[in-house]
Amino acid sequence: MSRFITLIKGEFLRLQRYKLFAASIFVSIMWVGVLHFVDMVNVTGLIPQLVFLDVTTMAVLLVGVSFIYERDEATLYSMLISPITKSQYIWAKLLSHITPSIVSLTIMFIYAKTFKTLDINYFCLLGGVLLVAFFHSQIGFLLTFHTRDFTGLVMLIITFFLISILPVILDEFAIVTNEVFRKLIFLLPTKSALMIIMGTTGSIESWKIIVSIVYMVLGSVFLYYLIWKKLQDHFLKGGGK
Amino acid sequence: MYRIRNLRFRYPKNSEDTIRGISFDIKKGEIFGLLGPSGVGKSTTQKLLIRLLGNYRGEILYKGKDLHSYNDSYYQNIGVGFEMPAFFSKLTAEENLRFFKQLYASNIDTDKLLKRLGLYEDRNRRVSEYSKGMKVRLNFVRAMLNNPEMLFLDEPTNGLDPKNARIIKEIIKEFRQQGGTVLLTTHLMNDVDELCDRVAFMAGGKIVEISTPKELKLKYSTRELDVEYMDDGSIRKSTFSLDGLGNNNEFMDIIKKRQILTLHSRESTLDDIFIKVTGVDTSV
Predict the structure, then answer these.
(1) Considering only CB atoms, which chain B residues are within 8 Å of A13?
(2) Of B160, B101, B97, B170, which Cα lies nearest the Cα of B134?
(3) Please, what is the end-to-end C-alpha distance for chain B in angstroms?
(4) Which of B153, B259, B174, B275 is nearest to B220 (CA)?
(5) Helices (runs of H) and strands (runs of E) counted in chain B
(6) Which one, of A96, A115, A105, A123, lies nearest residue A52 by Cα?
(7) Chain A interface, mutation test: which of B10, B72, B89, most A Cβ atoms within 10 Å?
(8) In terms of DSSP bridges, do strands B57-62 and B65-66 run parallel, antiparallel, or are they unpaired?
(9) Which of B149, B215, B208 shows the shortest CA–CA distance to B183?
(10) Out of A10, A77, A232, whose CB is closest to B99?
(11) Is the CB of residue B147 less than 8 Å from the CB of residue B77?
(12) Closest CA to A219 of A99, A141, A131, A127
């Protein structure tokens, strides 16, 4: 257990030193800017949408960047010849990298509660963010297995955004209203993510929230298995180099 | 310490084995050199022994037990110094070492080692600000920090000035004197000559020669002696067979009557042997 805590502490120190925390805070401030300048007093419907965008993109990006740094600096090898298990390594990285999402949520929540009208339970939203961030951090992990550098990662994240997040946004803002399209996007994990986060406003039917939670939980288990398995293959291929 | 038998390994996308049935032992308390040109399988062999790679065929025993039977506590007993420095560049040297030390049950006094390697004053500087030589020295401290029984070192003195290379070699010798075992991978034959108890030369994924440096030098030597001497005001050179040298009248005559300038046996150097057995010149 003490080694796991050491790994978590190390991840937090590096989030700070590699300025990934600062980048996350900067994005949060941008969201606060949106809240400030938007012409509405009650932001109960807007906050979950901003949280959704923040969590799904930042969780993928932060884990990906952190992993690429470790690979480029060969510290990944140094970790793997230390007396830690692969699971401890993966869990420490995932758990620490969902923290910026929590901080971001809290900043937006405090601003909205102080300067606007907001009718959402913070802890319900927090629960949703934890699950969605955990799932998407794992997506970030997997994407790095298929890229050699930071530029490649950014390209993959843009592709992920276009395939997975954009259709959900088009549906959410009723830009595309085609029925087949609206049904098909339920296959996307990001739709479940949005259902869970929007569910905190009380505007989503309970069964949809439950199905989305089950989707995210089972999806997380599957992704974790893939990471655990592919991490070793990744080294067999020479660590992406 | 290690017993390796008929070890074979193939990378997933390769059509041929990189390691092609090698067998050797690493005895407790010895410095074993694994030598050969780039791409012959030295690093792969090391990665198999430190379990960065798996799925090998053949047998690797560590302390008499199959390497597969060890869990992650195996790493409590080994120290690894990679050829490329492996540090978090935006953390200080001290922060890097503290982080890795906390992962092990046993630690050495790294301050003492940092002082000896001339890094103590710079321990609070970020690793990104370190020179190449400083990173190499820090890499060595990383390998030693868990007080290992077995040390894997890949080019530990590469890029170091002679003074610091000397210090590293002294520490490696002390490590052996205290019962430690070392697997050394290097291209620097002077280091091998100075440190290694036994060496194995690899070529094409196989071990092509394995013995002590002394025995290899004798095996690959020509049993002849070159003599340079003064004869009527000019320098002359003659070569004699070492066999029956004491009964060679011509040689004895030169020794007794001439002024000898140089005497050289034709003992091979490890560089010569490297070129002969691997077909690659280390000087280029």
Answers:
(1) 91, 95, 99
(2) B160
(3) 35
(4) B275
(5) 9, 13
(6) A105
(7) B72
(8) antiparallel
(9) B149
(10) A10
(11) no
(12) A131
What's at B248, amino acid-wise? N
Q: Please report, as a single letter, which amino acid is at residue B50.
A: I
Residues of chain A neighbouring B74 (CB-CB closer than 8 A):
83
User: Using a CB-CB distance cutoff of 8 angstroms, which residues of chain B are in contact with residue A2?
Assistant: 102
In angstroms, the separation between the Cα of residue A27 and the nearest Cα of chain B is 22
Q: Which of B218, B250, B219 is nearest to B236 (CA)?
A: B250
| Distance (Å, whole) CA A231 – CA A233 | 6
User: What pLDDT tens digit does each residue of chain B (284 aa) get?
Assistant: 899 999 999 988 888 999 999 999 999 999 999 998 888 889 899 999 999 888 899 999 999 999 999 988 899 999 999 888 899 999 999 999 999 999 999 899 999 999 999 999 999 999 999 999 999 999 999 999 999 999 999 989 988 999 999 999 999 999 999 999 999 998 888 889 899 999 999 998 999 999 999 988 888 888 889 999 998 888 999 998 888 888 888 989 899 888 999 998 888 888 888 888 887 655 54
Across the interface, of A2, A6, A232, the residue whose CB is closest to B99 is A6
Task: Check: CB of residue A137 under 8 Å from CB of residue A80.
Answer: no
The reported pTM is 0.85
Q: In B, what residues contact A, Cβ < 8 A?
A: 11-13, 50-55, 72-76, 78, 80, 82, 84-91, 95, 99-100, 102-105, 142
- B215 to each of A98, A236, B22, B84, how far by Cα in Å? 60, 37, 21, 32
